[in-house]
Amino acid sequence: MSLSKGPYEPRGLEVVERPDERTGRGWMKAIVVTDEAAGTAGMTFVERPVPEPAINEVVVQVHASGFTSGELTWPSTWTDRLGRDRTPSIPGQQLAGVVTALGYGTTGLSVGQRVFGLTDSYRGGGLAEYVAIEARNLAPLPGDVDFTVGASLPMPGLTAWQGLIEHGRLQAGQSVLVHGAAGSVGSTVTQLAREFGAYVIGTGRAADRQSALDFGAMDFVDLENDALEDVGDVDLVFDVIGGDILKRSAGVIRAGGTLVTIAEPTEARPPDGLAIDFVVEADRAQLGEIVQRVRDGRLRTNIGNVATLDDAVAALNPIERISGQTIIRVRP
Ligand SMILES: NC(=O)c1ccc[n+]([C@@H]2O[C@H](COP(=O)([O-])OP(=O)(O)OC[C@H]3O[C@@H](n4cnc5c(N)ncnc54)[C@H](OP(=O)(O)O)[C@@H]3O)[C@@H](O)[C@H]2O)c1
């Protein structure tokens, strides 16, 4: 993959070709997107100025990072909070690396510290050699956890934790239907729900049955061949698919039960129950809970492919289906 020049940030009327000559900031390699309609095929490998930390932020030298399949469909990848175009944007919300600079007023982290975390969705930035990120969105990464593993944890780990515990209020002994149970989020939901004492039924494509069972599902519904409605009444559905599957899922929840979805806003609701659609947020304490579970073997991460930043565009546009996350190993 060749490194193309720009696009670079306009300064006034002039397009600055080498911003470092004016600002003294260095350059870094990064993946950018500029065209929403192009999807991952519109990713380009460019040079960008190394970011600087603002108040309460740090700059992290990224060792590994991850990109979530839906990121390019989220408005936050394309605009800022005021709806202004923020392209070219660098995608990639989850990352692991080493702190190289502290912004004014930043406490709790130090230069040289190993960290992992989740960037704000209006910022992204993980598919690059350096990222500026709010310190509160990071947690220490223990020395015995590899950067590649660290980068694979924040998005599925926080999403599963918040969906099951904060929003789903899961109780031991409850039954949980987990859609996409062999996928990135679903496999983490499956493992955590089992640990918390739930009876877990996984769903997915026929080919994913064994993988879902290996992650701890006690039963499996093949959405391509089985009838979802045959599941009967469960206490909680954790949906990652949306659409028709989400709508039909409300019908397999007992009265008073809970439907949690991360796929889209939902109008489907179980009778007398709760329906929650939410977007994950960074949380240092929860990151700590998740990484501790990886260290002691309670949680297994789901990585399908690891590629370098130079090969990231090709790796994020796979010709064949990859089960599990693609992690970009930015530094060897
Ligand atoms: N709201 C939030 O905070 C939040 C956070 C994280 C992720 N998300 C979103 O949640 C979704 C899942 O993310 P992920 O990272 O877990 O994705 P993933 O790793 O691709 O997992 C999704 C799983 O569901 C399966 N699946 C999808 N549609 C299916 C269908 N119609 N029938 C049977 N199986 C189906 C997929 O199989 P195939 O690969 O064969 O399709 C895959 O195994 C994405 O849309 C992502 O953008 C939202």
Using brief descriptors, characterize the structure shown.
single chain; 332 residues; alpha/beta; Quinone Oxidoreductase, Chain A, domain 1; Rossmann fold; 7-stranded mixed beta sheet; 6-stranded parallel beta sheet; globular; binds NADP nicotinamide-adenine-dinucleotide phosphate
How does this model look, in words?
- There is one protein chain.
- The chain has two domains: 10-152 and 302-329, Medium-chain alcohol dehydrogenases, catalytic domain (Quinone Oxidoreductase, Chain A, domain 1, Alpha-Beta Complex), CATH 3.90.180; 155-277, Rossmann fold, CATH 3.40.50.
- The longest helix is centred in the middle third of the chain and has 14 residues, at 154-167.
- Strands 5, 6, 7, 8, 9, 16 and 17 form a seven-stranded mixed beta sheet that branches. It has a six-stranded parallel beta sheet with strand order 12-11-10-13-14-15, sandwiched between helices. Strands 1-2 form a two-stranded antiparallel ribbon.
- The chain has helices at 19-23, 147-151, 154-167, 184-195, 209-214, 243-249, 284-295, 312-315, and strands at 10-11, 14-15, 27-32, 44-49, 57-66, 94-102, 114-118, 130-134, 138-140, 175-178, 199-204, 219-222, 234-239, 253-261, 274-277, 303-308, 325-329.
- 20% of the residues lie in helices and 28% in strands.
- The model is unreliable at 4-17 (pLDDT under 50).
- By secondary structure, it is an alpha/beta fold.
- The radius of gyration is 20 Å and the shape is globular.
- It is built from eight helices and 17 strands.
- Helix 6 (243-249) links the parallel strand 13 and strand 14 (253-261).
- The structure holds NADP nicotinamide-adenine-dinucleotide phosphate.
